[in-house]
Design goal:
single chain; alpha/beta; Immunoglobulin-like; 5-stranded parallel sheet; binds beta-D-glucopyranose
Length: 756
């Protein structure tokens, strides 16, 4: 939709004359203009430039990660009028460098171009402001999903926005809203897990926080970016950016709600899925980009492509015979800005396509207006330069506590045989395994470098698990035999482990995955590497108690090896304070409360989600008797997660048995902590539609609340549900609630209500 909105923007009125394809500018008078006037005054070249986003390499000296090449800067900003720049080259920059980089860019844009339109810098601050030195990193989204903690998700997002604003950057390509339903996928850790309600709730909270940032005038605003629209997270083969097969009903039932909520929450921008869905590259899919995103969801912000994805319509997807045709297809499908990112080919082709009449100039006007509205919303016309005072918002000491809390609340205890945990204060511990003394495994992707593996870039103050355990338990009680290099052969040395075990009571094995981001993190086998499974067996054979701490971005299958462990703690990618957080759970200072945000497969082919249909259970009258096969047999189901306390449920009640129309049903339940240790507990309400016109799920998470219970305390919890909470997408792609019975399940209690 092209909508006229008056602005209070005061700019220098410029008449831009296009002669022989060369834009000339003449400053005429000072006046109050609308953004529409500004668009109308722009040449085709300027408009195409605004729709172009390049990576920072384009303005840097070839051999340098930081040094601006003045000639390249002039070409990009003054000649080509590039509207947006993104990324870092190789490494996180200091905040001072960020300021001088963006100042140089804005100098060129606002002093040397005719319309003085500021450049919008975009960055991936994915789990904290991971591209500025000295920032605080929080658990990746999969850990946030495990915490079920909306307040902590917001607190971390607030710091992320503050540190991103401190850099002088106004656009954050975060959060990812895709559902993690393909565990092979290398970006699993960036998502909130497999469940729609979880992703909707947490994504909405994070987007609201980003979009509210700086609105009080105390900082600069930061735009959020919901990504990747849509279907990116479910590649059929698990390989990054490859084909997903997603029926429209499924898409609307599961994948769309987080985006719909994000739009309502005020998401300023969206990034498009690099892959194809049902053979149609998302960047060419006007049904998704226009009909669903704009017309149905009402999104009015900027749609940016993902990295090189217009070019790839020609080189990779092969749906465009030439790079020029690729530009035409993507722009006509509805993208506003192309993350080109290394050249000006998009700009050139776009200019040519407009001049030849193949793309109407009005199509550019629509996108350019959205881009300018975004720049205005971010105050860039008035304040294009980084605010030096905001540097103080980087690395504030109080951020550490939020990072620690976020990590603590994410940790998910999946097994605790005979209450082996918490470990006694006097425990003699042997610590081994590739993740034990390794920062990349603790942080995962987007951690001071894209792949997160550059250990030299981590703050010196960040503790590995080994260092944190020495501090928590005392150096004399902890022996670490791990090599800091994840793939070092020492880390797979089962014999060395056996020898070192003597004199220790417990073996803590820190296992998992090295850091990886995007396509390089692809795997063909979900099974945890054989070397690591061997360590579990060797540890068990020593007769000591075996505690596995897993640092990985996705559920790696351990199958039979689970028997060989006494305790299993999933840490995901807990980041900056991960080491300390894990220790606080191991020694009982903190009572674990994380709940799995995904289903952990028992075998490599066992990928059945928790919200599967009843059809996963099949009974056949085979001789010698009936056989029941339940395809749902995970290692640990979605929602699994132990505590050091026992929580019990009682008095589940509904205030009515039947409801209709807009009625609300009030559900009450009491939760008791019957132990001596206080703790947090997540109360989850699931529903089951007993009979429906499309196969209903066994259970579906509808609501959750997180409560704190002291030792021996009982607390009431109340939920209010209505027909919309129990709705689904029917055969005609419409959201409906059908009359009939619904089972409401909380903990081990359940009751039935009927919608009439
Ligand atoms: C990723 C995006 C990211 C972009 C910019 C792409 O490769 O898919 O998620 O925002 O790069 O760095």
């Amino acid at each position: 939709m092209f909508f006229a909105r008056f602005t209070t923007l005061t700019i220098i009125l410029v008449a831009t004359l296009a002669e022989n394809g060369v834009a000339q500018s003449v400053e005429t008078s000072q006046s109050r203009l609308t953004l529409e006037d500004l668009v109308a005054s722009m040449s085709i070249e300027e408009k195409a430039g605004q729709m172009t986003q390049t990576t920072v390499d384009v303005i840097l000296k070839d051999e340098s990660p930081t040094e601006i090449d003045p000639e390249k800067l002039r070409v990009a900003i003054v000649d080509r009028r590039v509207g947006s720049i993104l990324n870092v080259k190789w490494m996180a920059y200091t905040v001072d460098h960020w300021h001088s980089l963006i100042t140089a860019i804005q100098d060129a844009a606002t002093k040397e171009t005719p319309n003085k339109i500021p450049v919008l810098y975009g960055i991936d601050s994915i789990h904290g402001a991971n591209y500025v030195k000295g920032s605080t990193l929080f658990p990746h989204n999969v850990g946030v999903g495990a915490s079920r903690d909306v307040a902590l998700a917001k607190a971390a997002a607030k710091i992320n926005a503050a540190e991103t604003a401190a850099m002088g950057v106004a656009w954050n390509f975060d959060p990812m809203l895709g559902l993690a339903r393909q565990p092979l996928w290398s970006r699993f850790e960036e998502s909130y897990g497999e469940d729609e309600h979880l992703a909707t709730t947490l994504g909405r909270a994070v987007i609201e926080t980003y979009e509210a940032h700086g609105r009080d005038g105390k900082s600069s605003p930061v735009a959020s970016c919901m990504k990747h629209f849509i279907g990116y997270s479910m590649p059929l083969t698990g390989k990054d950016r490859t084909t997903a097969l997603i029926p429209e009903r499924f898409l609307r039932e599961y994948l769309l709600p987080p985006f719909a909520a994000a739009v309502k929450a005020g998401a300023s921008t969206v990034m498009i899925n690099s892959g194809d869905v049902n053979g149609i590259p998302a960047h060419t899919n006007s049904h998704y980009l226009k009909t669903i995103l704009r017309d149905e969801l009402g999104f009015e912000g900027v749609a940016v492509t993902d990295w090189e994805d217009v070019i790839r319509l020609h080189t990779r997807h092969k749906v465009a015979a030439t790079p020029r045709e690729a530009v035409k297809i993507a722009v006509m499908a509805g993208i506003d800005m192309s993350m080109v990112p290394f050249d000006f080919s998009f700009t050139d082709h776009l200019i040519d396509l407009v001049k030849s009449g193949e793309i109407p100039e009005s199509r550019l006007d629509e996108s350019v207006l959205r881009i300018l509205q975004l720049k205005q919303k971010l105050n860039l016309f008035d304040h294009p330069y980084p605010n030096a005072e905001l540097k103080a918002d980087l690395g504030r000491p109080e951020y550490q506590q939020v990072a620690l809390d976020a990590a603590l609340h994410s940790l998910t205890l999946l097994k605790n045989k005979d209450n082996v945990l918490p470990l006694p204060k006097t425990a003699k511990i042997l610590l081994a395994g590739p993740a034990a003394d390794n920062l990349p495994a603790m942080h995962g992707s987007w951690s001071y470098s894209w792949q997160g593996r550059d250990t030299g870039q981590y703050p010196e103050t960040t503790l590995t698990l080994a260092k944190a355990m020495e501090q928590a338990f005392g150096e004399e009680q902890v022996t670490c035999i791990a090599n800091p290099d994840f793939d070092h052969t020492d880390n797979a040395d089962a014999e060395a482990l056996t020898k070192a075990a003597e004199g220790h009571d417990y073996i803590v094995l820190a296992l998992g995955e090295n850091a990886y981001a995007e396509t390089p993190g692809g795997i063909d086998d979900l099974m945890l590497e054989y070397d690591q499974l061997k360590l579990i067996v060797a540890a068990k054979e020593t007769g000591k108690k075996v505690v596995v701490v897993m640092m990985s971005g996705r559920p790696r299958v351990i199958g039979w090896a689970e028997d060989q462990t006494d305790a299993f703690l999933m840490a995901y990618r807990p980041a900056s304070k991960g080491g300390e957080a894990i220790c606080q759970v191991l020694n009982g200072e903190f009572n674990p409360c994380g709940k799995l945000p995904f289903t952990w497969p028992r075998g490599t082919g066992d990928v059945v989600m928790y919200d599967h249909g009843h059809t996963s259970k099949i009974s056949e009258p085979f001789p010698p008797g009936p056989v029941t096969t339940d395809a749902f047999n995970p290692q640990w189901p979605f929602g699994a997660g132990l505590s050091y306390s026992q929580f019990s449920y009682s008095n589940l009640k509904a205030d009515r048995e039947t409801f209709s129309g807009d009625d609300q049903v009030t559900i009450n339940i009491d939760i008791t902590n019957s132990d001596e240790m206080a703790g947090w507990h997540v109360v989850e309400l699931y529903s089951r539609d007993l009979f429906a016109s499309v196969v209903p799920c066994q259970r579906r998470l509808r609501m959750f609340k997180k409560i704190h219970l002291n030792a021996g305390e009982t607390k009431p919890v109340e939920f209010k549900i209505d027909a919309a909470d129990l709705s689904f997408i029917d055969r005609n792609m419409k959201r409906i609630t059908e009359p009939g019975g619904f089972l409401i399940m909380i903990g081990d209690k359940q009751l039935e209500i009927e919608f009439q």
